[in-house]
């Protein structure tokens, strides 16, 4: 069966329950409405429209004959199919094709033999990629995919392995930044046409984390590749994210003795205090902070009083927590060097990312920042003896990463070409994401809105969904299971704009992931929370609630009506939500139309120029 990001990569879902019931004249209640013993099997508020019923098309060529298919027109000399054979996938006969686009972009395409409904979906990867991810992520639950109606494809983005050493090779940088995902789309479409005798009628892209960055890059750089794009928790500020953000998180939780200051056991204390401070802002006491941007939480309230030692924190731990929330600032100018930090209510998901489970166990932030700062973000890489301790959190050093930022970034707000050709874009993010602050995503949405229509309505082609209580691409204390592909298909194929997305939580801890990819396992996408070996972090004991929730396009939020079971999506209504506060930071210019670079390697020389817009 298909996998989401659940035991894996970057995933997605959750329920949005930002409310602001006070605006509706309702008072927050400290008593939860009486819950029914059983939840309804279906929810009448669901907006999942049925996709078009397309004819099944069967192959006109044998799978084995694809071995000789010429890819050089797409990827250049040396591009080739390395294997093509019929295999049983999800219980059905499938033509599985693997190949390499010159010089080293690996890819995989799966072509159903007897159930193809003329649709194609490419899947993004996570972290620094380096592996093939065939997990369907935010398409989990989509019947058209689960019945093998789609041809699927993915790429390793030009290198093998999770580390950043590939950045020593300029061409591999380019392939990872944007070329790999594009030429994989071209190669996949060519193979589909060869195998079935006709092109795919509809093409979709679906990715989260770096896959979300890839999704935006496709809309920005290659507007003709896909009809519908789903971009989850996009790592669009790649250079900043993997240096100033993760580097700061790693350093801020390291004491003078080299050991971690905060540990997993401290997280419930912070989490419970944050929830106590801000849970009821939305009018419902349900254990979820649905409006974290408006949450004024001071971790100082957790300070141990004289004689106390349990369920409280020392001043040293509180100071470290404040640094993690606030992010780095230039010590001389006070200028913020990142765009937002982890939001209140995300604390349980810090485990394995920048807080070790125990002792001085390696954390994700150290691993990703070390690889990026040594190999990827600078025009000239640091010396071999460089360590993360040498990284300077200053505006001067921020200026050092500017020259190559446009190589990797997905922050270009000019996506008018994608809009004009009829493309549809769904962007989504978990509000309690420990890896990538949702502030980045809202900032991009507002910038794209301004660039596309002068700040006016863009819902004809772009929608943003924010999921309270959700971690990075999957997991969380709030509802985080949902299907975005079905409403995307209805939008692309029938012109039915998506509104409420119904997210759910099964009431169990499930797979709370947040670390790097699992090594050598392409069937299990990278875990997003956990240790650097990809194992899930120890799940902290919290009360998970079985529930469903309607998530509306930003800035609309869901408000409990005050009647019926609060755990059921049908008992919520849309209300106007609060807007996100504005942020001034060193990278404001990154969200401009001229922010991207086109790079090439000519006679061994790495050259970049401003991309046309």
TrEMBL record:
Coiled coil: none annotated. GO terms for molecular function: carboxylic ester hydrolase activity; metal ion binding. It holds the Pfam family Tannase. Residues 1-23 form the signal peptide. Keywords: Calcium, Disulfide bond, Hydrolase, Metal-binding, Serine esterase, Signal. InterPro entries: AB_hydrolase_fold, Tannase/feruloyl_esterase. Belongs to the tannase family. This is Tannase. It comes from Alteromonas confluentis.
